[in-house]
């Protein structure tokens, strides 16, 4: 896989000039009467009837595609297949108990504590709030894969926690007792709960706007910034030869998250264009500011004591730098102009440069291993 690249910036806020307003409300594809009851249901589908939400084409028919890029995402996702059991964690046990300083253990445990809760939330978001609103099968199929991947990520953290013999009750409860971790989760829960209801009226412009903002938050910030940049403290340990097994696990997760983020941003752009949505600038500003404040508090808690090679200030600045990238990919203005790339090695982590070692050290043979293609 190539390093993460910038998507061409096409301003979505101009979409209103190009697209017809959405009139009259159309039935959801999955609300069509069964075959035999409606003569119109016997007609072949026109892929142009597909929409991100409120489409009229039969949801059970994959092709012809309206969104071929969504199918490509599904194929790409299937090239990054692994299980946490395949990565050797033996040295991590030694590192954690004998080589990490107390400050480094604090960082490691709290990153893990945040991630455990966060990935379950990600699974619920895409599986329960987002996927059911989609009315094109090629979108739902990638999201179904994404739901599986989020649960795989949760398994990965659990595997690390078990291997290192950490106190599960303590780790999993940490977000409930540490305000700086809770702040990020609470913010995400709020965005999730706003669109979690089934039967949301997507013909209502305010509801649609809220849904777009929620999905934008999850794809662009939660996955695109908080996950993408969230592994960095452990990669900083990896660069010093510490916790390399955990870091490798996170590299696999990061590859998934890059795709989740890219796909979600693409869907949001498509939704904005199809529905002729104008995102409220004040709502967007609030989105970025809340995310920055939560991330900044979290960074301050992680790095109460300095850690060799990384710090709270580096983490905060890198958040702002990556946030600008996500905004450009969304076709939006940069929220933090001038933010610098203070962790230039971060993007390289997507590349899994140690693949050779991975194949040497893997402990099980995976049936589709021959199909792996590390571009
Ligand atoms: Fe995930
Ligand atoms: Fe994800």
From TrEMBL:
Molecular function (Gene Ontology), one example = ribonucleoside-diphosphate reductase activity, thioredoxin disulfide as acceptor
Q: Which UniProt keywords apply?
A: Deoxyribonucleotide synthesis, Iron, Metal-binding, Oxidoreductase
EC category: oxidoreductase
Question: Which cofactors does this protein require?
Answer: Fe cation
Q: Which Pfam families has this protein been placed in?
A: Ribonuc_red_sm
Q: Which family does it belong to?
A: Belongs to the ribonucleoside diphosphate reductase small chain family.
Indicate what this protein is called per its UniProt record: Ribonucleoside-diphosphate reductase subunit beta
Q: Which organism is it from?
A: Azospira inquinata
